[in-house]
Amino acid sequence: MMECISIYIGLAGIQVGNACWELYCLEHGIQPDGQIRSDKTVDGGDDTFNTFFSETGAGKYVPRAVFVDLEPTIIDEVRTGTYRQLFHPEQLISGKEDAANNIARRYYTIGKEIVDLCLDRIRKLADNCTGLQGFLVFNAVGGGTGSGLGSLLLECLFVDYGKKSNLGFTVYPSPQVSTSVLEPYNSVLSTHSLLEHTDVAVLLDNEAIYDIYRRSLDIERLTYTNLNRLVSQVISSLTASLRFDGALNMDVFEFQTNLVSYPRIHFMLPSYAPVISAEKAYHEQLFVAEITNNTFEPSSIMAKYDPCHGKYMACCLMYRGDVVPKDVNTVVATIKTKRTIQFVDWCPSGFKCGINYQPPTVVSEGDLAKVQRAV
């Protein structure tokens, strides 16, 4: 088995978590109450569910996930939302007071009161795994809980589960859009913990995702639900190789091996293509070469950063859907020949490719079109 435990910390982490589990349930044919859909059959040897779900004695599937916040509002939304029957009540942990976006209060005082309870719940989930691979940690370093409690939890996980991989999905403050004057301070102070206690950190930025949505889908009035559904597609694609079959299946924790040149240089920039509406999808071919080239456009990167100002150290292309290795090899060879992207001198051929046969799944009321392939 290759189980992963997901930990969602603070407002941003929990909202991303809601979008992720909505998508995972659709991909695996699991209903909001944890039961398998009647049209979905599970073979005796099919253990794809077990990466992210554990099966109860009653045949219900429960996520291997913990949701943590220091004030109850957002956790209460999960407790009363569409997927309230999916999660085990013990996995939804909330405190009683907010700490007003202050990383120090979350790290030194309020966070200390709740961290032991969180670790106890994580330990129960870990004991229920036969071959725990590692942890996926979701938080925003601009907020108080995501930065303070997030840093504290990462340190504790590093001490208790030092041999297990830690993959972080971190929302950083945007250059122009800010929700709090304390965001820069919180993010600077919590970056040290990401440097020391995560193996790979995937950086996300709300402003960049806003711009991708506006440009690709022509939607002006966006909510965080829109953004989180796009983020969940990226996370689903990264973890698809753990859950489904493929020609060049790549373990998500191989990132550490293939992308991290030096232990402290482990910050990744994600990109996803195609981001396209249903109306446009009918008129486009979306070949492998086209979607691959789209991912290298600066406007497709989910953080406000222009790759023209630097060089790549390594690159991982994770395809899903109707993709064959021959097409991937051709595209990569073309990129290398044209020198479309510049690599550092000491890592001239830094491409790692993965192919998964499961095509992207989309939420029925979402904005993204259902496509045959994505990268």
TrEMBL record:
It holds the Pfam family Tubulin. Belongs to the tubulin family. Keywords: Cytoplasm, Cytoskeleton, GTP-binding, Hydrolase, Magnesium, Microtubule, Nucleotide-binding. CDD domains: alpha_tubulin. GO terms for cellular component: microtubule. GO terms for biological process: microtubule-based process. Dimer of alpha and beta chains. A typical microtubule is a hollow water-filled tube with an outer diameter of 25 nm and an inner diameter of 15 nM. Alpha-beta heterodimers associate head-to-tail to form protofilaments running lengthwise along the microtubule wall with the beta-tubulin subunit facing the microtubule plus end conferring a structural polarity. Microtubules usually have 13 protofilaments but different protofilament numbers can be found in some organisms and specialized cells. Residues 49-246 form the Tubulin/FtsZ GTPase domain. Tubulin is the major constituent of microtubules, a cylinder consisting of laterally associated linear protofilaments composed of alpha- and beta-tubulin heterodimers. Microtubules grow by the addition of GTP-tubulin dimers to the microtubule end, where a stabilizing cap forms. Below the cap, tubulin dimers are in GDP-bound state, owing to GTPase activity of alpha-tubulin. This is Tubulin alpha chain.
